[in-house]
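Batch manifest line 335
LIGAND: beta-D-mannopyranose
JOB: complex structure
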Amino acid sequence: MKLKFRTPDFIRRKGVVLSPDRMPYESALTFNAGVNRWHGGYVMLFRNDFGFSKKDYDDYYEGRIGRLPPTLNNLGLAVSSDGLHWDIRPEPVFSMSGNGIIRAYDPRITDLGGGEYGVCFAVESTAGTRGGIALTKDFEHFEVKSISVPVNRNMALFPEKIGGEYVRLERPFLTGDRNHSIWLSRSPDLVHWGESELVLACGDLPYSDLKIGPAAPPVKTPQGWLTLLHGVEVQEQPFPGWARDWKRCYYGGVMLLDPENPAKIIALAGIPLLVPEEPYEIEGYRGGVIFPGGMIAEPDGTVKIYYGAADTVECLAEAKMQDLIDFCFEHNVMK
Ligand code: BMA
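JOB STATUS: finished
ARTIFACT:
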């Protein structure tokens, strides 16, 4: 398949860091993780989908079964000393169901300081998709602070209060696909959210004609908040996935937000940062998906970018902080 874009040369892929075959419990897909620093190393909460296999999809598309099994999922935990090699904890650590809630997925981890971590996640409910926020210190016990009204997801908390308030990016679903835009809301307590402002409309991102969303929680730099996002384009030809009619391409993107008023974009790269090109990004459950959920700035100027690939595995890529910032300005479409 010929893609319109290519990943810039300064991105160094480190490959797959987590895959379903390594799971100590039932797993079909392990992807869309949140990652942060923890106890001198790194911590990862990842999405673990189970209850089905590639064979079910082959059987379905070849007419042997009329219905696909339902997707079940939980969140798993892994820890690492180098960010590349991960030890998976023996049991999943988080799941949600009941009271109209079907499942929780796509976690993102923000270090709020003082040993406290904010975890944002999407919630599938009978009334529609919702965005949840929980607090944890040990990644075993989670205190759910708030779950939004439908329809919303892709929340990412900033690591510090701005103007005395907690701040999050989010992606409500508005009317019509092209209006799935990135918004920013503020809260005094992580429970009550408001003062919402539009950050980026889907139609203003050149590599997206369907929807966009916030990705990893923003990282503070001297130039502003470095922020990853994803942009979705409709493809004519489906990628070679288990889901054979999946005709979408998910790119990773990057932008810089104003340090004092993060609802304002300083620079937005009008071309993608991560394009699905490697076999593990192109083939899987849903081929052609890059879904970044974690970004860590290292003291030596390297940035680790964690992303789900093909909705099947979790990957790591690295770049220099300066290259990411230069990329935003060189290809800035917000002039
Ligand atoms: C989105 C979410 C993500 C997923 C992506 C691509 O709508 O469901 O969890 O990675 O689609 O399938």
